[in-house]
Amino acid sequence: MEGSIAELRETFTSGRTKSVEWRKKQLKALLDLINENEDKIFHALHQDLGKHPAESYRDEIGVIQKSVDFTLSCLDKWVAPNKENCLLFFFPAKGEVLSEPLGVVLIFSSWNFPISLALDPLIGAISAGNTAVLKPSELSPACMSFLSETVPLYLDNKAIKIIGGGADVGQRLLELKWDKIFFTGSPRVGSLVMTAAAKHLTPVTLELGGKCPVIVDNFSSPSKSKAAAKRIVGGKWGPCTGQACIAIDYLLVEEKSASNLIESLKKTIKRFYGENLKDLKNLSRIVNKHHFERISNFLKDPQVAASIVYGGSVNEEKLIIEPTILLDPPLDSDIMTEEIFGPLLPIITLKNIEESIEFINSKPKPLVIYAFTENETFKKRILSETSSGTVTFNDVMMQFICDALPFGGVGQSGYGRYHGKYSFDTFSHEKAVFHGAFFPEIEPRYPPWNDFKLLFLKLAYRLDYFGLILHMLGLKRP
Amino acid sequence: MGSEVEKKAVFDMEAAKVVVKELRESFAAGKTKSYEWRVSQLKAILKMMEENEPQIIAALREDLSKPELESSIYEIAMLKNTCKLALKEMKHWILPEKAKTSLTTFPSSAEIVSEPFGVVLVISAWNYPFLLSLDPVVGAIAAGNAIVLKPSEIAPASSSLLAKLVETYMDSSCIKVVEGGVTETSALLEQKWDKIFYTGNGRIARIVMAAAAKHLTPVVLELGGKSPVIVDSDINLQVATRRIIAGKWGCNNGQACISPDYVVTTKDYAPKLVDSFKRELERFYGKNPLESKDLSRIVNSNHFARLSKLLDEDKVSGKIVHGGERDKTNLKISPTILLDVPQDSLIMNEEIFGPLLPFILVDKVEDSFDVVNSTGTKPLAAYLFTNDKKLKEKFVATVSAGGLVVNDTTVHLAVHTLPFGGVGESGMGAYHGKFSFDAFSHKKAVLYRGFAADAFVRYPPYTNGKLRLLRALVNGGLLDIIRALFGWSKA
């Protein structure tokens, strides 16, 4: 392992990865990899998670294709230095900010979107000119194998390496010195990654999770309510059957509107996914036995089980849990205190929808807050009185594919961000460059100090150019 | 004295918890988010600086023997400028930034909203105790946070003056100063902060980051390193020399994170350069620099001993070509130049942070880059004096450091449009100008969507037709979408 990393460092030092041509070539190769292996990817995702090709395309392949295209079209602009204005005092000096690669970077990806969450950060690392190690999650083994076997066939082996394995491999990697670590996963492991990074003062980006709430206000028209229900169902069970950092975790609605909403959700679930456990389709499965048990255990709490209003059945052999809705489970139950990361949707009713703000603030800051509402004042309150990585109004998930928006968390949901140019930035050092001129030379910069020089400098710092001139002409009184 | 000891013994974990709790309550009450509050606090800092200039200068003289001009300009005037800039620009900084949306999310609008992190901890250093305490605090206030400031105990007069002034001038329900050393800092670091801003050295920075990791707290680390100055031959020698001297001995006598640490120049040019230094040094500091009032002293006996050790090492003690005089009682070392120092000496393997300037000699000036890059760590700043355009380009392209300056030293600190921060061992994150505001803000992404044009392809049941359309929507332009809708695309 140390040998591989040493090779990456050598490659980086040689300067090869800094060239824009190299970066573009790698990105294009990545696109070829995706385009030429679509079926293999569909197959691997189906094996690991039971994903339907449409879901795989929408959440994994399409995401990468779009990301590469966007990066290729913008890369020349991003690598160009940013000219900055310097004060008149420094004339004719020039300033600029130049993005340069950090060096050798480590990317940890997670098992729920094993292709896109692995390759999207890699796109950022490559576009910024780094060499990289990608450590995919062993919980999605088919995808990990796919990446390990296929990436070396397309990308520069001496600059980009896939290192597979379990937690022990991850730990060994963390002991080495990296110039940046990008981690997608749970807060618990995120903390371990940052602690390891601290030993080498390695900057990190942590893309974590949290309990992403959806606030559902009342709508003036039933068609909007129906559309909202559709989007909510799509945003809960659509992405990997709820096993996503930005999936809806729980729902907040007014008491009086709860039953209508639940009916709407039930209808939509049946239409999208089937009438019952036997006929379930278009849904991923739970990734493995451990998570299956973890999620099933939420329902073992008798008070929680009593609050089930739809679903609740499980198929242990096939690792399937049907879409389940719960109405007002106890607030101190595990299902309401831990991130669910699965197909259970607790609905919490409130007297007044505005109480949702206080409710959300009583929990750690999530990655996303979703809010379905037409009330502009309420929207403003949500924005200014809650904190989250992102806020999305009247939809779900869409923020993920918006290249212009930074994607990242705050507080327990992480720090740092990526997508679009933010991916490039997250793997870059923004180096300030000041081009000074030998002339003119300003005497008062130098000792021996005296009152004249002191006043000169004070005036200069106040940007009092007129006063400076007077002072130099001997006309200014101190 | 007795009550001071009492006060220090009392600040433990419990006390730290109480402080954080109070600040969290103030933050939750929305006090610090108000624009008026932020303006009032920035104005308070300005007033504090204006009304206490002589006291600040006196405290700095006591802690560091800092010359009045350095205190006046680098600590007070710079800080006032930072406040004024924030007061002027804050109304722009707090505005949401519109983000462009694409066809894929049509119809939608997006923006990025800056919001405060919450309760932040600023730990500052001893060499510029006022500037490095209040400059980050200005950023934290502008961004709307509640703050604990922990000044360095190695500059005790400044620390206690800061504590007194902040309590008198600022809103102590939202901004507090906690003084102390290792015990107090450790107690603070155990707490959960929403951001930690640390200025200091790499060893402590690791401790700070590890503590922050327990709570997933993001950090800015402003550290240091060995900032090299590469000097080419065909330059305005006098100007270059003076600028290097100003950046080295003129900045707290070399005790600054961006002070030129060592010089790299050609064997041929070195004699001329050294002579120029000798001339200008005498012009600036006189024949007896140990008595010059224009030089700070070494901060304390620990650092004096450390620097003495660097000079006494066998490998370098014979290389002193200028200076080398020491006054242990008054903690002074005269501006010292060492010529042709070996790269494996102690002085070349730690950040000097003092008035010693080693010269490394190379055959050709281009070889300097290898010397700089071979140290294995990236410094906070790197400097080059040259008129050669190609050399400048190579410098900018191959030397990695927090910031680079061509034909001057340290001035980039004062350019607020340039981010000031390190990379690798010299740190992470940046500040100054708007970058300070950004360092203390969470940039929240906001997406507004409408109900019109719901892309039915998003939802199951999944069919081939939908897959085709999805591909076109995600990847293609308008034409692809139309084609897909009519079933004309291939796959």
Automatic annotation (TrEMBL), chain A:
Q: Return the GO cellular component terms, semicolon-separated.
A: cytoplasm
The record's section on SUPFAM superfamilies has: ALDH-like (SSF53720)
User: What's the superkingdom here?
Assistant: Eukaryota
* Catalytic activity field: an aldehyde + NAD(+) + H2O = a carboxylate + NADH + 2 H(+)
GO biological process entries: aldehyde metabolic process; response to abscisic acid; response to water deprivation
Q: Which family does it belong to?
A: Belongs to the aldehyde dehydrogenase family.
Under which name does UniProt file this protein? Aldehyde dehydrogenase
**GO molecular function per UniProt:** aldehyde dehydrogenase (NAD+) activity
Keyword annotations for this protein, in alphabetical order, are: NAD, Oxidoreductase
Q: Residues in the active site?
A: 207, 245
Q: Does the keyword NAD apply?
A: yes
> The Aldehyde dehydrogenase domain covers which part of the protein?
9-433
Source species, please?
Corchorus capsularis (Jute)
From TrEMBL, chain B:
Residues annotated as coiled-coil are none
What keywords is this UniProt entry annotated with? Answer: NAD, Oxidoreductase
Ranges for domain Aldehyde dehydrogenase come to: 12-446
Q: Which Pfam families match?
A: Aldedh
Task: Look up the domain of life of the source.
Answer: Eukaryota
PROSITE patterns reported for this sequence: ALDEHYDE_DEHYDR_GLU (PS00687)
Q: Does the keyword ATP-binding apply?
A: no
Q: GO terms for CC?
A: cytoplasm
Listed GO MF terms: aldehyde dehydrogenase (NAD+) activity
PANTHER family cross-referenced by the UniProt entry:
ALDEHYDE DEHYDROGENASE, ALDEHYDE DEHYDROGENASE TYPE III, ISOFORM Q
Q: Which family does it belong to?
A: Belongs to the aldehyde dehydrogenase family.
- Protein name, as recorded: Aldehyde dehydrogenase
Originating species: Corchorus capsularis
| Lineage of producing organism | Eukaryota, Viridiplantae, Streptophyta, Embryophyta, Tracheophyta
